[in-house]
Fold these 3 entries.
Entry 1:
Amino acid sequence: MALFQPVPVRGETTPPPPLEVSQGIDQKIHNLSKLQDAMDSLTREIVEAQNEMSTPGGRGREQLLTARITQLNGKLFDLEQNFNDLSSEISFNSMDKSQDLDFDWGRELKDILRPLVRELQRATSRPREIEKHRSDIEGYDQQLELINRAMGRISKLMKASTCPPKLKERLNQTLSTWENRQNELETLKNISRLQLDKISRESETLSETIRKVPRIFFKSHGSNLLLAMVSFMFVAFILFRLHGLIRKISPFHKKGQSFYVRVFDLGYGLFSTFICFSVLLGVLYFFSDWVLLSLILFFMIGLIWTSKETLPRVWNQGRLILNLGPVREGELVVYNGIPYIVQSINIYTLIYNPFIPSGRIRLPIADLLNLRSRPVDPNEPWFPTKINDWVLLDNDNPARVLSQTPETVIIEMIGGARISYTTPNYISSAPVNLSSGFRIKILFGLDYGLQAIITEKVPGIMKSSIESELFKGGFREQITFIRVAFKQAASSSLDIEIAVDFDGASARDYVMIKRLIQKACVETCNSENWVIPFNQLTVHMENNKHS
């Protein structure tokens, strides 16, 4: 071995994996003997190649023999390293500190990408092989066409009457050379065509290839990926359940979501994510699946690289989770024009409105970044109405609220007709809620002939008549206030203002109550012979006399 110094070429041989040194003595001696036999065999091959180079048969093959000797020296160098590592259990490379300084990013990146490139090469081997044979056949055809032209020109020269015999003999030798080249190319062309036909016969349809791909993938990498994903989900489930147990038994969590509890929950989430991905990569590393490991690593690097643009957004979301942002738990926030209480802030935030039965909304934390919250007032108006409230809209007809959700409000008119509003439009229409109590105000005009009694006597009589009519209509208990008083002297009448307050129980009879009050006023005028005026237009004519 000392006679031949190995000349390894970097990049041409792959370093062998480290041998297992924790073996028994007998097994180690057996392995060392096998290595010794392999090194002796390589040494003999090197000697034979060197001897062949010095013989007449090696002339013209020096470059080929030199390359073979270099390759054999590299293999011998690797075996000698293995022999030393196995026998001494100490590697020379571990003592060479200069290797740590010789770091080449390009070489390291090639080592990482090599499994991916190998997989791509294997996946595209058939199309590339077909294209290679087609290109070879096309090249052979072009060369054969040139050879045929050359042979034709030589034959034409040989057939010329002026061609001397000596020149014809020389041309015949040249023609033979071209014929040999033609036969060689024909043979290569036939070989390429046969290989192409063989590949074409063995080729599969697209549907067969599609069905075969999952089987091939699962056979090579799918089982590793499946096991890695199962391990990832199992560890994630265990950590999730552990966090739930901590929240259940921890005295700090029982006291509420304090700042320190939020910091712990956020840190636990980050720690769990790190552990889960570490398990995923560890499983792939254990099975030495460098293809999937490289893909996942590149995916994670790309994810980290792109996250630099969203880092401020992630920071703001972290502040929200810690209850340090512009939206805080227990405060009021307006979302889509509706006030809500912020119940809890997490990856998904829960907000609710106590006046809307289905008013619980789960929002992604990203949606809170543009919102602002404020402390809740004890008398906060959460919504204009509640279910079964009676409201008065633009048409001055009462309607009952059947349903109200964050998206729609459905009201039912007297008679059964239903109207649907989008919730923002319903709120913007400013509905009058009659169920909390309401006032009916009527302006009734009388003739100027009652000017002497309009301020005292007439209001008293009108009030008694209105009370009597409303009591007969069954509204005695619902009336909370009534007032009849002279209001103004209008252009055509003396106006009396009638104001009657009712509680919410009579909200459904809003229209009927107005009619009863009008009826009482008219019947009083009839019984008292009071004149109800109508609007008059008085035109004063001036008589101008011209002299």
Entry 2:
Amino acid sequence: MVVEDKSGDDLSALRERVRARLDVERRKYRELFQFAPACYLQTDPNERITDVNIAASRLLRVEQQRLIGRSLINFIPQTARKAFRIQLALLRDGQELHGLQIPLQPRESDPVPVVIDVVPARNDGEIVAYRWLIRQRSKEILPSGDHMRRAHDLLEAAPTGCFLVDREWRLRFVNPAAARIMGRTPEELLGVNLWEAFPDAASSGFADIGHAVMTNTEALEFEELYRPSHRWIQGVAFSTDDGVCVFIRDVTKSKKAQGAEAHLAAIVRATSVAVLSLSATGVIESWNHGAEDLFGYKAEEIIGRRVDAIVPEDRRRELDFLKGRSRKDVHYATKAVHRTGRLIEISVTLSPIINAGGDLIGYSLISRDASDQVRTERKMRKTLKRSTRRAEALQEKDRLKDLLLVAASHDMRGPVATLLGMALTLKQVHPFEETSVEHELLERMIANGQRLERLLSDLLDLDRISQGLFQPQRARIDVGMVAKGVVQGMAGPDSPIRVVSRPGLAEVDPMLAERIIENLIGNALKFSDRDEDIVVEVRPEDGGVQIAVNDRGPGVPDEIKEDIFQPFTRGTSGKEGHGIGLTLVKRFAELHGGRAWVEDGRGGGASFRVFLPTEFPSS
């Protein structure tokens, strides 16, 4: 059995019934309006009649169709127009008028006294029309002194500025609001010629408007910049029997806001970044050139459609912010659907749009093409992986090298000690003549054996330090005395080494302090001529003791002053060395919480320095 889905038909039928009911209600309203006993009419903001019922047509003695488009002011007697215009100014300020007593002038007839009620009609807060209810009185009631006083009081209290000038341009009335806009007090302005009080206005658009109104019965609206005070003034001016009446207000803030909005809108339109706005339900309301370039849609093609049009099916969950009416800024990377159907990588910044009342009215969405960024990130990830693999391979090689060096050091230490011992024993047991070849060969064997033994010892010390197995044995000693002892043990009678020291106490390992000074002196001897002085300085400093070994050698270039303390790094002089001694100096200093560095010597050469703190660092 096939069941037909009639939900679509039922919905269409319901729509037709609602439309028919609305048509009936409109006709009823129109009939009530047309045949009401009271006079009803509607005008635009400029008081031109846009709709009128039969009773009003009869009162004014003009056919309904011929009334459309005519100004209501034409049906006010000349003697009453001044008071009527004053009331109209209050109406333009957004106020309602009730019980306004004024005469109407029907066509080819005497004035008729009426009572008028007027209510502004608004759309989004803006006045778009006025609705007039006119009731005829039994006898003529013209504006009395009481009515004029009431109008005067209303103008005094009105938030809109109002002033009157006579035919000589003298100010006859200025309310407080107008005086504030003019930057004076009412007392300062009354009786003064307007153009003398404001000479800059006499040669501006304000004067053109004033003179035009003075010679014409038509009211003129204006908006002008008064340059001396940098204020924008908006208003309406109309002629009276005695001169001109002007209503003004300061719109500087709104003009600045409009300018800022226009500037911002121009920036948004011109920017290459895609900027679009959504309603609270996800309908696209604006679409700039950047969005056209990124997504491929022209503004007229996409505005009014839901944002789903550019969101892939598998990413619709990203639109959950619409259901939850989120008020948070969101940043994320995603994909979008181009007009051609292809997917594009984009980055998105989504922000809520909140009105002055705190209500969520929509969202702004800023998007950028992230295709290049995504490709770059992928390349960077691949490069990082390759670099990581290379670094790991280098670390492994370095680890194997260290293992080989340590293993070789351990394995070679025994044979080297044996060979050195045998050479020394041979020298004692069977001494050769000093001039013989045998004596020279034996001395070389002993010297090289001792160098090799020191190298192996240094390598093993480096390994122990790297593994954290080297523990200094601290004691409070005078480092200057240690330096003197080392120099005495190394220097002969003609040695160029001198010691300059002052008492400097530090908590250090005595053996390591000796090794530091020995290695620094050995390095200086290696790079100095025999007759060049080497000065060892020891002096106390704030928080510790500084050791400096100064030579007159070739010095150390700036580019290797940091690397010179790395293992197997040697200077550029070509002198022989294994590059371990300075490394141990640096490591021994760091074990004490100190540091080692090199500077240029004061008279040339190099000055290798070590700082050892007074207090031994806690572990």
Entry 3:
Amino acid sequence: MIPFGRRHIRNFRRVREIIRVFRKYGFLYLFRRSQFPEQLTLPLFQKETTKRTPQENLRLAFEELGTTFIKLGQILSTRPDLLPEEYCQELRKLQDQTSPVSFLEIREVVEQELKKPIEEIFAEFDPAPLASASIAQVHRAVLKDGNKAAVKVQKPGVEEKVISDLEILFYLANLADRLTSFAPLTFSEMVTEFQKSLMREIDFLYEAVNARRFRENFSDFEGVYIPRVFDEYTTTRVLTLELIEGFNLSQMAEKGQLQIDGPFLARRGAEAVLKMIFEDGFFHADPHPGNIMIREETGELVFLDFGIVGTVDERTRENMERMLLAVLRKDTERVVDILEDEFLLSPVESPLTLRVDLHEILERYVTANLKEMNISSLVNDFFYLLRKHSLRFPPHLSSLMRALMVVEGTGMMLDPHFTVVPYLEKALERTFAQRLRWERLSEKVTDYLFDWQKLLANFPDKAQELLEEASRGRIRFQMESEDLKNLNRRLDRVSNRLSLSVILGSLLIGSSLIYISSPRPGAMGILGILGFGIAALLGIFLVIEMLRSR
């Protein structure tokens, strides 16, 4: 996906703009060793840049570059396993509020998606948007049956711009991977994860499915409400949800109008998110105050914006519960064992050093009362440890840990003395108790019996096949080791260079003998000169190969 090829010449101006903005905010070094033309990477000194922190400059650069980079920054802010906390905090300030597009353009999108004139679908449709972000804007409407709705409409040209920016990001990531390294992930892997998240955000059908699933999961949960989705008026670019009349937590906090039972709502919100994670295995990955409302009629908490969610399968939930309980009980050995066996995507180079560092972190919390323990500090220290040891943690579990941090921060806004840890411990103990119930145990025993039944039924045939193969001498044992593969590759390179060196030496000696033995310039002399030329080419090739492998 190289933007400078004929197929991608349309991306050239955007690439130049990206380089200009990063240069403006002091990130020119990212392109200094690149293959870009010199006029694109000329230094541009900005006095203001030196007065700001690097993380603030990064945020300003993302804001100036628009939709795709704002979303990139917002997603990176949820990944403390990749970036230090000071960068995550700064990127959370990214404002996704932009000027709305005209109602005529919105009308065109709605009618194109729903295949009808807007007057035939809605009894009312307010031309002035309730809110406007980089991807979409939301309008108040009333359906023909009288239901009030919030209609989220994707702005024209967003998908094309996002795809174009993703092409450029893939090119820049591949280039960055060749020039530098970023443990524990490559830049290309980061962009691949970002692409998956962003493409889901611009597909409103995906968000509608998430909203329906949350609504079903919380149908019997008192104090939490999920808006209804109007499926017949929802497509990939139009999402029609039940309009919620109420107060947004972030706006109320800014105005100092939190005249509510803060401790009760903080507790209810924490219980809701913990239910999502440990009971449903399907959770809101960004439950910050801007995505939570208080319903005016009932005082219920209302979760909004279901574009970024996380899923956890049952086995992973069990392992996560075991690890979190071990953390709360300061059991370092068990934490490291569970991490190594179940979660880390990269090997631990020094388990002893990791244990020592982890024990040092947990020691800080040994004397703390559960009601005083801050989950955000604990999680930040944990992710610092992962970065220090260049360890990879599954992205969906990073989102889970981040959700716990956010729900604690939101709770503290409602109740300054709030901490999520006591509710976390209760949730873990409750889920463990549920797993030990006879119904759950009997289900597992039944599954094990079926597995054993299949094994015993197939055992005689498999044993006979094995004995027959052994009697014919056809049994072979195969072992694979990544270290041995690397050693074989190195030996192959060494032997190839050695062979090339022998051939090179033979050519030089042979050509010298032929040239010296020739009494006068002729066919033999030319043959000797030709040998020198071939030897020179082989020598150059050998030197280049050696330099490339350094």
